[in-house]
Design goal:
Distance between the termini: 36 Å
Structural class: alpha/beta
Helix content: 25-40%
EC number: 1.3.1.104
Number of domains: 2
CATH architecture of the largest domain: Alpha-Beta Complex
Protein name: Enoyl-[acyl-carrier-protein] reductase, mitochondrial
Keywords: Fatty acid biosynthesis, Fatty acid metabolism, Lipid biosynthesis, Lipid metabolism, Mitochondrion, NADP, Oxidoreductase, Transit peptide
Order of helices and strands: HEHEEHEEEEEHHEHEHEHHEHEEHEH
Organism: Camelus ferus
Number of helices: 12
Bound molecules: NADP nicotinamide-adenine-dinucleotide phosphate
Enzyme class: oxidoreductase
Strand order of the largest sheet: 11-10-9-12-13-15
């Protein structure tokens, strides 16, 4: 989900759900203080004090800005999206939950306003994004510790910078970490129009990989097909079409995919498995249908398919500089 309105102009959580938040974390080191002030302050934030339905538990509050210490960076948020994981985190259904109360939002881009005396990696004017999930980006500004930020170039579009840290990284890791794919090899995925799906299409095309992209049917399917093909998709197929027997003929010119990327679960993931090459891998990274992955015994025995999972937060933890080998 992609939101876009100015936080400063919004009045209610409902309005705020529809926007690209022009905003700015809690749950990390040196964030803005959480005492919701009685006086209007400069910092406005979308805060939740307990888990539940985001429309009911998220409130627009004024926060006090912490003083900028030696290793701190004062950041003015420029843009922040609403991702499914942001919603899951507020609901309390996510693998990583912040200490409450918390500011919502895991992704975004901000501009450095001021830095503490020992900060060396960024300077005022630079653009920064969160290094990890849980920064609480739905706020106008904040004071963060330098170590939780990563500098990014300022010559990329703002929406791209605001959505750089999760979906494209997830897409890239899944494409390179599970199967040794060569140019010309093929990848199949569902929810191909999702943020992750679109990143998969573009990165796969850049790596010379072909993609079979499954989407849900809709009245303007042609428009969506065209848009995904413009991004580099080779085939765009609906969930209904992929279940048809004739699909085998349609895909006969494409090598059988050795990698499947599953964002949905349920029947959709069973179909991906059916089209995988013997010995291939299906990586599950999302469960949009809220249904379990069902793999037929025959496919597991006779095709020796591998079922794996991926979570970017765990990957980052495992690959952080201090992580144990
Ligand atoms: N594991 C990780 O590290 C990781 C990283 C990033 C994202 N994710 C997960 O990946 C998923 C997608 O994230 P995103 O930011 O790319 O999402 P997004 O851009 O909001 O797209 C959501 C996608 O899910 C589809 N969808 C929604 N409800 C569905 C249903 N009931 N059945 C089938 N498809 C459904 C949508 O299709 P329609 O257009 O047809 O509605 C759309 O393609 C989320 O579950 C997110 O938590 C995981």
């Amino acid at each position: 989900m992609w939101v876009c309105t100015a936080l400063s102009g919004a009045r209610t959580p409902a309005q705020l759900r529809r926007v690209l938040l022009l905003a700015s974390r809690h749950c990390g080191p040196a964030a803005a203080s959480f005492s919701a002030s009685a006086e209007p302050s400069r910092v406005r934030a979308l805060v939740y004090g307990h888990h539940g339905d985001p429309a009911k538990v998220v409130e627009l509050k004024n926060l006090e800005l912490a003083a900028v210490g030696g290793s701190d960076v004062h950041v003015k948020m420029l843009a922040a999206p609403i991702n499914p994981s942001d919603i899951n985190m507020i609901q309390g259904n996510y693998g990583l939950l912040p200490k409450l109360p918390a500011v919502g939002g895991n992704e975004g881009v901000g501009q450095v306003v001021a830095v503490g005396s020992s900060v060396t990696g960024v300077k005022p004017g630079d653009w920064v994004i969160p290094a990890n999930a849980g920064l609480g980006t739905w706020r106008t500004e904040a004071v963060f510790s330098e170590e939780v930020l990563v500098g990014v170039p300022k010559d990329i579009p703002l929406p791209s910078a605001a959505t750089l840290s999760v979906n494209p990284c997830t897409a890239y890791r899944m494409l390179v970490d599970f199967e040794q794919l060569q140019p010309g090899d093929c990848v199949i995925q569902n929810a191909s129009n999702s943020g992750v799906g679109q990143a998969v299409i573009q990165i796969a095309a850049a790596l010379g990989l072909r993609t079979i992209n499954v989407v849900r049917d809709r009245p303007d399917i042609q428009k969506l097909t065209e848009r995904l093909k413009n991004l580099g998709a080779d085939h765009v197929i609906t969930e209904e079409e992929i279940r048809k027997h004739e699909m085998k003929n349609f895909l006969k010119d494409v090598p059988q995919p050795r990698l499947a990327l599953n964002c949905v679960g349920g029947k959709s993931s069973t179909e991906l498995l059916r089209h995988l090459a013997p010995g291939g891998t299906m990586v599950t990274y999302g469960g949009m249908a809220k249904q379990p992955v069902i793999a037929s015994v025959g496919l597991l025995i006779f095709k020796d398919l591998k079922l794996r999972g991926f979570w970017l937060s765990q990957w980052k933890k495992d690959h952080s500089p201090g992580a144990m080998p």
